[in-house]
Design brief:
The protein is mainly alpha-helical. It has helices at residues 2-31, 42-62, 67-88, 93-117.
């Protein structure tokens, strides 16, 4: 029983990590569109680390919800907490707010598709 829960938890973490990796790749493409959107390379590594941690904790708290509410709460939590972190790091407020909405939209689409497709596993 405990072994089964550990296995399910580990699989869930890998799925959340997958969402965050796809999110980071998409975000990289968007930041590459314009010099105005450019960020240092460590930004992406930090996004994977902190996004995965935030996303996994959020997921643990909402794992029993249906796919759309789960993705809505997951995306909101990850986007807001990452953007607060970027604001505290010194990114301009208008940049932070603009990417709050972009990050939320990317995460909502990716997490909804994932949670919907993997509903029986999550």
């Amino acid at each position: 029983m405990v072994k089964s829960k550990v296995r399910i938890t580990f699989k869930s973490f890998l799925i959340i990590l997958g969402i965050i990796l796809l999110f980071t790749a998409t975000d990289y493409a968007i930041h590459s569109l314009s010099e105005e959107y450019a960020v240092p390379n460590y930004y992406y590594k930090n996004k994977v680390i902190f996004g995965s941690i935030i996303g996994f904790v959020a997921y643990i708290l909402i794992r029993n919800k249906n796919p759309f509410p789960k993705s809505l709460i997951f995306s909101t939590t990850v986007a807001i907490l990452l953007q607060i972190r970027y604001f505290l790091e010194g990114y301009p407020l208008d940049f932070v707010i603009e990417f709050l909405f972009i990050h939320f939209a990317i995460l909502l689409v990716l997490s909804y598709i994932t949670f919907k497709l993997l509903k029986k596993y999550l």
